[in-house]
């Protein structure tokens, strides 16, 4: 009985979380060929400095952060808590996310790989033949794949939004603005991470030691 009640409680929590996720509407605009902008990292090496703020229900944290990005598919993200209370790091290599052993809070703070890449302007979702696209003025939207579906929005050639849709609902999403700042949201978990870019610059090649777990 205890086991059954526990499973029912977990199932109920999952159902409540899904109910909080907004429904995904049909793509607006006129049908258009599914030719999407490249949405890849600029060549070379970049350092992105930002302020970050994480919220999950009653938990809130904020501080300084830095992303060291190497084209085409590598990044290291460091988060430092305000007040000198510590921090953590994450390596993003292709579709693999690595965090320090025993530092589960970084997994909690950092979005999944495809959405973290989207925060930096790179589209990195599994390719799919069943891609549908629609255009509305300068805005291009496309649904990629099924179960889950990745909905991507471009403002001109700029990646402006990526959503993961499952069961007809937007489970989680990243939105970006022109200066590179980004917001990740998971409404079911009531979780968000805001990255407010303060400086972006090209730099020489990074020391190889930053890529070691």
Large-scale geometry: globular
| Terminus-to-terminus distance | 43 Å
Per DSSP, the total helix count is 3
Q: How much helix is in the residues?
A: 10-25%
**In CATH, what is the homologous superfamily?**
Lipoprotein localisation LolA/LolB/LppX
The main sheet comes to:
13 strands, antiparallel
The multimeric state of the shown protein is single chain
**CATH class categorisation:** Mainly Beta
Order of helices and strands: HEEEEEEHHEEEEEEE
Q: Overall mean pLDDT score?
A: 89
Poorly predicted ranges: 1-17
List keywords for this structure.
213 residues; alpha+beta; outer membrane lipoprotein receptor (LolB), chain A; 13-stranded antiparallel beta sheet; 3 helices; globular; disordered N terminus
Describe this structure in words.
This protein is α+β, with helices and mostly antiparallel strands and 213 residues long. The chain has one domain: Lipoprotein localisation LolA/LolB/LppX (outer membrane lipoprotein receptor (LolB), chain A), CATH 2.50.20.10. Helix content is 15%, strand content 46%. The protein has three helices and 13 strands. The protein has helices spanning 2-20, 104-109, 113-119, and strands at residues 30-32, 45-56, 59-70, 74-81, 87-93, 96-98, 131-136, 139-144, 149-155, 158-166, 169-176, 182-186, 191-203. Strands 1-7-8-9-10-11-12-13-2-3-4-5-6 form a 13-stranded antiparallel β-sheet. The longest helix has 19 residues, at 2-20. The radius of gyration is 18 Å and the shape is globular. The N and C termini lie far apart (43 Å).
């Amino acid at each position: 009985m205890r086991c059954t009640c526990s499973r029912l409680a977990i199932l109920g929590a999952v159902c409540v979380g899904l109910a909080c996720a907004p429904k995904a509407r049909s793509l607006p605009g006129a049908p258009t060929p599914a030719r999407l902008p490249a949405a890849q990292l600029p060549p070379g090496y970049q350092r992105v400095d930002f302020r970050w703020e994480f919220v999950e229900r009653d938990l809130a944290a904020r501080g300084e952060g830095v992303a060291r990005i190497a084209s085409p598919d590598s990044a290291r993200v460091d988060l430092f808590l305000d007040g000198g209370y510590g921090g953590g790091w994450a390596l993003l290599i292709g579709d693999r996310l690595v965090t320090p052993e025993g530092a589960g809070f970084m997994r909690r703070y950092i979005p999944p790989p495809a959405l973290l890449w989207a925060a930096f302007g790179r589209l990195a979702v599994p390719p799919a033949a069943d891609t549908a696209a629609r255009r509305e003025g300068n805005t291009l939207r496309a649904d990629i794949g099924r179960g889950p579906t990745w909905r991507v929005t471009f403002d001109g050639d700029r990646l402006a939004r990526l959503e993961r849709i499952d069961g007809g609902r937007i489970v989680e999403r990243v939105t970006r603005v022109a200066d590179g700042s980004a917001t990740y949201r998971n409404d079911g978990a009531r979780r968000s991470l805001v990255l407010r870019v303060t400086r972006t610059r090209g730099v020489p090649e990074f020391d190889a030691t930053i890529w070691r777990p």
